[in-house]
Each structure stands twice: as structure tokens, then as C-alpha cells.
Specification:
With 297 residues, the chain is mainly alpha-helical. It has one domain. The protein is 79% helix and 0% strand. Helix 2 crosses helix 8.
């Protein structure tokens, strides 16, 4: 991987941590992610129109977009709940790491075990071990009470959402690439319309939730700039990664290096949000990070 790609991926990781930090520091809610998603759609639709993209491709993948958007909305809902009830330095690593265990687990249940090497399983074990250590107060005396926290449940919901849209997106993008040879623009199209469905689902929930209506009004009045900025970060981070993929011989290098966002997310929580640090927290994050690198390489 060239230095240019490494710098771009590192920048994307910083942007990803950035919008998560904004989500945690502001009003963590479905309303926040609705506004951020709407901003992403607004920006990326302009990119597609400027590129004169053929939108008729929508008819081939609409079902993947609709269901994937639902899982993405579940992810954002879980993330909002986790950030309301827990520290970012705990939630961010868990939400990023657990899908690495869930996706292969689901694939195994349906009889698909291709790609599971000894190194991959070993990396997954390290991820699991890191997740066990991360929420503990004492690394020498593991307690099950450390796992039964409200934020842990929401982090699992977020990871479930990530697992769902990950499995669907791989198939949806395969269809698009077989139709349209502009892989980057095809991916931007897919992400944009996925976000449109996210806005629809989150919008419906907000419509029937008085609390989320209040959150939305509060964001519009007092946090609209930071929420819009978060949406711009979401879109920019995604586009940077898409630009990097054609610049490497193996996309797994990009995927692996993206995991630098996990220790960065923990550091952001501790330094920027003034969260407490602990030996189990730091140890768990580092073990998860190493395990993910092994899985993706």
C-alpha cells in the first residue's frame, strides 16, 4: 500500500471517528442520525447528477437498498442508544468489532464457511477476547456484571444492524458492478440510496415518537451545524475509501488499515470527551485492533 493510500485511509478513519464524536457529544438520538443522513444524501446526489449517472439501475437493486437501509437504520438506532448510556471509548470499539464475529457466525449457520482460515479464526478469537476485557473494571477479576450494561445491549443492536447491511450490500454491489463498470460511482449510488431509505425509516420513527420530535427540534435550533457537519464527514469518509480501493492490489489492505479508527475512537473518547481510562479498556482496545488486522489480512 502506497503512502498516499495510507494517508487517505488514515484521513477517512479520522473523519469516521469525527462524526461519531459529534454524535456522542451532541444529542445522541435517531433525530441526529436522520439529520446527518439527510445531509449525506443531499451532498452525494449532487455528485451523481454532476456525473450524469444512470439512475435506472435502481430497479435492479431496490430490494437490497430497502432492506439494507432498514438494517442501517437499526445500526444508527443502536448507536444512538449506546452513546446515550455509555462511553464512546467503550461503545465505539464494541460496535466496530462485534460484526466481525457476527458476519462469519451467520455465514457458518447457513453453511458458507469459505474464507475461514486458521489465521482468520485466530483473529476472531482475539476480537472476542478483547470484547470480554474491554468493559471490565479489573483485568485480573473478570465479572459478568460488566457485560450486563444498557450500552452493551445497544452496541449489540448496532452490531446486528451492521451485520445485516454488510451481508446485503455485498450482493447488491455485485449486481451493480455487473451492470455498471464505474465501480466508484456505482458504490456512491448504492450508498446514497441506502441513506435515502435510512431517512425514510428514521423519519417514520421520529414521526411517531414525541421524544424524538423534541430531539429533532432541539437539533434544528441548537445543533444543526454540528449535525450537518457530521453528515458531511460521513459522506466524505465513505468517498475517500472508494477512491482508495482502485489504488491497491488487494482491497483487504485498505479494510485492515481502516481499523486504526478503533484505537483512535477510544483515544477521542478519553481525550476529547474526558472519559475515564483504565487498563482493561486500553488492553481490550489493543487486542481487538490486533485481532481485526489479522482477520482482514
Amino acid at each position: 500500500m502506497s503512502p498516499t493510500v495510507a494517508i487517505l485511509v488514515f484521513l477517512s478513519a479520522l473523519l469516521h471517528v469525527g462524526w461519531n464524536t459529534l454524535g456522542k457529544s451532541g444529542t445522541p438520538s435517531k433525530a441526529f442520525f436522520f439529520t446527518a443522513s439527510f445531509t449525506s444524501v443531499f451532498l452525494l446526489l449532487h455528485v451523481l447528477f454532476f456525473a450524469d449517472f444512470d439512475f435506472s439501475i435502481f430497479s435492479e437493486v431496490w430490494i437490497y437498498l430497502a432492506v439494507s437501509g432498514l438494517f442501517q437504520a437499526v445500526y444508527y438506532s443502536g448507536l444512538a442508544g449506546a452513546y446515550r448510556t455509555g462511553e464512546m471509548s467503550l461503545v465505539y470499539p464494541l460496535a466496530r468489532a462485534l460484526p466481525v464475529l457476527f458476519v462469519p457466525g451467520f455465514s457458518f449457520l447457513i453453511g458458507n464457511i469459505s474464507g475461514l482460515s486458521v489465521f482468520t479464526v485466530g483473529g476472531m478469537f482475539l476480537v472476542f477476547l478483547g470484547c470480554l476485557i474491554l468493559p471490565q473494571s479489573n483485568i485480573r477479576q473478570l465479572s459478568f456484571r460488566g457485560y450486563f450494561k444498557t450500552y452493551s445491549g445497544f452496541a449489540v443492536i448496532a452490531a446486528f444492524g451492521t451485520t445485516g447491511y454488510t451481508l446485503l450490500d455485498s450482493k447488491g454491489m455485485e449486481i451493480i458492478q455487473n451492470i455498471n463498470n464505474q465501480s466508484i460511482m456505482g458504490a456512491i449510488f448504492y450508498f446514497t440510496f441506502q441513506m435515502i431509505f435510512v431517512c425514510i425509516y428514521l423519519g417514520i420513527f421520529i414521526l411517531f415518537s414525541s421524544n424524538e420530535k423534541r430531539n429533532l427540534l432541539h437539533i434544528i435550533k441548537k445543533e444543526k451545524l454540528s449535525t450537518i457537519f457530521a453528515g458531511l464527514l460521513v459522506a466524505t469518509a465513505y468517498i475517500i475509501i472508494l477512491i482508495c480501493y482502485p489504488m491497491v492490489t488487494n482491497v483487504s489492505y485498505v479494510t485492515a488499515f481502516r481499523q486504526i479508527s478503533i484505537p483512535l475512537g477510544a483515544v477521542a473518547g478519553i481525550l476529547l470527551l474526558k472519559e475515564k481510562w483504565s487498563i482493561p479498556k486500553i488492553t481490550g482496545v489493543l487486542i481487538i485492533f490486533i485481532g481485526l488486522i489479522i482477520v482482514y489480512l
